[in-house]
Amino acid sequence: MAEPFVSFISLLLKTQPDYALAHPRQKPFNDTLRQAMRKRITVILQRSRPTPTTDTPRLQRFPSIYTDYLESKLMNSANSEEEYSNPRDLEVRIHYLEKEVKELWYRLRHISDRLSALPDTLITQILLYLPTKDSIKTNFLSKRFKDLWLQVPGLEMHSHELAAIQNFIATFLQINRGSRLQKFKITYNGRNVCSHGISEFIAGVINRGVQQLDVGSSTLKRPLTNDLVPVNIYKSNTLVSLKLANVGMQNPPEFGVSLPCLKTVHLEDITTKDPLIVEKLISGCPVLEDLTVFRAFDDNVPVLRVRSLSLKRFCVKFSRARTIHGKEYAVEVDAPGLKYLNFRDNLSDKVVAKNLSSLFKIDIDTQFSFGMSTTITVQIKQAIISDFLKGVSGVRHMIISQPTLKILYAWMNNGAFTKFRNLTRLEASFCTVLLQRLPHFLEGCPKLKHLTLYLLYLKDLEPENLELTVVPQCLLCTLECVEVKEVATVEKAGKKRARYIKKTKVSKHKKKIWIELVRYILENSLVLKKLVLCFSSATNSVLEISEALPTFTIRSPGFRLHYLEKEVKEQWYRLRDMRFSDRISALPDTLITQILLYLPTKESIKTSFLSKRFKDLWLQVPGLELHSHEPAAIKNFIATFLQINRGSRLQRFKITYNGRNVCLHGTSEFIAGVINRGVQQLDVGSSTLKRPLTNDLVPVNIYKSNTLVSLKLANVGMQNPPEFGVSLPCLKTVHLEDITTKDPLIVEKLISGCPVLEDLTVFRAFDDNVPVLRVISLSLKRFCVKFSRARTIHGKEYAVEVDAPGLKYMNFRDDLSDKVVVKNLSSLFKVDIDTQFGTSTLQVKKAIICDFLKGIPSVRHMIISQPTLEVLYSCMKHGPFTKFCNLTRLEASFCTVLLQTLPYFLQGCPKLKHLTLHLLYLKDSEPANLELTVVPQCLLCTLECVEVNEVATVEKAGKKRARYIKRTKVSKHKKKIWTELVRYILENSLVLKKLVLCFSSVTNSVLEISEALPTFTIRSPGCEIFNHLTSI
């Protein structure tokens, strides 16, 4: 623990900026002052913590490293030499700094513990989302993370001096030369870039198949050359995302551009010699979906031409920060699949938008080069604006700024205004002067349903009165919701969503105009459902409107008024965000119903009370999950639910009942109905052991379902399959628990009709009429069988036959089957055995066990119970034991008597690497001594890890993993035997790396073994011993 913490402090010291860099405008402290500060810190630390007594050189250097870090942190944050002159203030500051370091350390340790269980490939993918500087810091979390950052398939660096990291980048790329990089991001400050080989690095990662490339300057300084981006970028077959900022691009090659995978492009203030570079780039991207262009006045691209069939999102920004006098710019957009357009271009004289039939949302903040000295006449400018608005007239959601509205208002006086016939949602910013034109603007939105008005506080000429006489069609027919929000701002008028800031005074005349606006909306809206007024507490307009409200004639009968001041609104949003409903409200109905599908129907119904968004949404859930003590009580509910969803295909149908009289309530008919409607998951059964009074609860059409994927039946009766057989082409999971049937071959027929069956679980019943459970399947991957001795029929014999070449996991818990046959299990990886192999004689069992073990020789992971080992031990006296040549992991439960046979069992596991022993506390006769003389091959060559766990249990011996329960006494003789077991393992294991001892505090065997440990001869030099006390 101490060594990683020292490394962590060393890393913090390295990452702490130098004072001269952190405070370039201040006079740095001299070395004398810094040395004096170190001495004062050392005195404070010596008083609060003891000096380490260990001889480890790294730990001996810890006080010096820690002092340097604290001194650097304090000096970098100090503003004057006298700031820490008071010793008490300095001590308090050091205390808080130490607290911050510890919290950061524990937070990183907590994260590492959660991630340590993940595979390397997944951890490196997580680290890919961090800057390389932060991923390097994980190197000090634990040994698990040592050098793991070197395997991250990406590099993200930011530096003020690229020369300082040139060698680092070259080394990183050299180490990862055999892998394909996913991400390469370099952000720099400065202009002299190419001299440091960045262009060569970019060319190299492109050749190695990088997917995300992000290169640029965090300032407005471009590099001194225009060829920073290499020419091979135009021929990348793997590039998915490209972001370039303040860089120069070479001209595309003569053979054109080919970027078949590029979906996202972000170009910000680039320079080039080719005026058609953006057009060529877009033409070479057949799957481009997202394009963002921040234009520069000197980018040498007078016409930005965007033509793409695949483009879905386009953002353009061109501000008036700097211009070239007399130069004209233009934008042309032709994208039939475009769904979102963000247009913030104030310099382009010509704007053309066409073929935007899929456009859903547009955000406009432009002045159409108004006020710029251009040669375009008023008539041409009017035609340009008119053509642009006609090009986006099919939009459904529009956000428009006050400067844009002001320009449109100027042109509206000279001609007709474009109609937006599909527009249903509008967000617009109005100053007081422009409010007079609001009805004329709304006349162009005949289907408008939601209107948001931002009232701007600008230094403009206020009208004497607000005379709104025109009533547009949307107010009479469609407008349902209006939001009026005060945006008091002193920022530039071009900000369409100015931040709410406090104002101490708003003119009474302006308030009067806003009240008239509210009156106009209320007295002319016939279908209005909701009006939201959001004013600041300083303006206090809400109270004045409330006083005037009785004088208004409200035309809409279902209208509701909401008052939200700024502070109230913020608190509302905070509370609303804490509710689960608001986190998923933005999702589409189809996705919400899929989420609700994982809840029982009773719980999904409760969501209807969260908000209007969820009202009756549970009725659209493509599934039903009910549990009832009285099926008759929910009969009508099920019938109504199925009737409402009669046009849709159900994914899930789960009915759990208590009782026996089920068929009288139509459950069988409901099951038949959902099967005919293409249900995918069917789960029917009783939560008790009571079966229904009839054997035909499950209808016969279940054997011919083309959609069923999962089938679970518990304590039900099944009809015989039809003569034409079973056909379940999609069924992958089957769970049969205590079923009854008249056909003894029903399971075999069911399996034969499932060509893609992967998971089969069978809980057998003594009266299920299936004496032989035959499992023959080529696709089966997981098989579980359970057959307990709870109840039996005297004289009846049972058998199990398994033939599954693709089986990977088998859980075998069958105590009643006298005959067990397993064959063709070449793919078996893991087996869990808890069986006594029936009630036959020992000689009969010997042959059955031998054939069973020979059928699973390829298994690699085995879990075996104490009763099974006891039966095997009895048979070992009568012949040799089967070898498991591929077994690498074993978990076995041993009572004290059986420990004597452990070496003989391990002789059959020559490649064993991990052994877990569960020591059971049973009432059996203990051996006088534990004499382990045989040393199996695995101890000498392969065994690397051993875990010894005490399992004190008074439960039935058949429980291979008995729960840890409290015991008040364990015999000293048993302790002695367990100590001898540990001695045997340590003195005979040559390659053992880890021994874990887990005993209860009651038994206290760990302490006794720890006392005896110095007397053991540990043969493995790298062995680590871990003692764990558990509360059994």
UniProtKB/TrEMBL annotation:
The record's Gene3D superfamilies line, in alphabetical order, gives: Ribonuclease Inhibitor
Tree of life domain: Eukaryota
The record's InterPro entries line, in alphabetical order, gives: F-box-like_dom_sf, F-box_AtFBL13-like, F-box_dom, FBD, FBL13/AtMIF1-like, LRR_dom_sf, LRR_FXL15/At3g58940/PEG3-like
Per UniProt, residues of the F-box domain are 112-148, 581-617
Signal peptide location? none
CDD domains assigned to the protein according to its UniProt record, in alphabetical order: F-box_AtFBL13-like
Q: Which PROSITE patterns match?
A: FBOX
Q: Which PANTHER family match?
A: F-BOX/RNI SUPERFAMILY PROTEIN-RELATED, PROTEIN WITH RNI-LIKE_FBD-LIKE DOMAIN
Name assigned to this protein: F-box domain-containing protein
Q: What is the native source organism of this protein?
A: Brassica carinata (Ethiopian mustard)
